[in-house]
Amino acid sequence: MASRMEPEQRARHGRRAGRRRAVVGGLSAFALTGAAIVTSSMMSSASAATTWPTANGSEAVSATIAVSGTRDGGMKRYYGSGDLAGDGQEEGQDPIFRLADGATLKNVIIGKPGADGIHCQGSCNLQNVWWEDVGEDAATFRGGNAATYTVYGGGARKAADKVFQHNGGGKLVVSKFAAQDFTTLYRSCGNCSTQYKRTAIFNTIEVTAPGSRLVGINTNYGDTAALRAVTIIGDSGKKIVPCQKYIGNNTGAEPSTNGSGPDGTHCNYTASDLTYQ
Q1: 12: which DSSP letter?
Q2: Is 220 left (phi over 0), alpha (psi -120 to 50) or beta?
């Protein structure tokens, strides 16, 4: 199920073949809490359901760009070409960017085709990164148990499967992020050959329907997910599942579901953490 898994991991979970990839319009205001993102003068927050940035030029990427240290994209659009020209759910795609342990990528727009977005090989920081049309997945986190991944600002839209794929261990913290037209915002790998206890925290998030679920976690591996200050737009019927629980495995089999909703152990949120508009 995972984004760019090793060969033995490539059993996907939750594919929605032929899913409608509607462009979401009629965007309403999204009020951010806290201070604005200030990583550079060009950085913009996920805001106003949502004000998507204008690219400062474009660059075709035919081979994965390796990032160590800090790379500031200056709000340039990067899109796949050649071997990275995939924009669907084909298995085995390489990412546009591959981040070494401790790397930071900021002020970047990933356009179409988006290939497999970004891979974090260890702890990483994604600041003000935008995906205009998610390919296989937007970002995949592959570090070990001690890894910490942070996503601050930015947004992703038109994700036929997942936005964030958590294949490794550690903790993911996502703040001030927007997602539009997606299936799953976050999935802890349900059938990777090596499994971990994974932690995810989402704070000040805006999602715009259509969408199926915010987070998917494996209760049998002790996963936890916290939702705070989540605004859900265009889902008056409350069809988007905030937290879906699964029984994960390491055999590649399709994981079974294990209920949904807050339980104070695995899915940590209350009704007051969700605002519907």
Answers
A1: -
A2: alpha
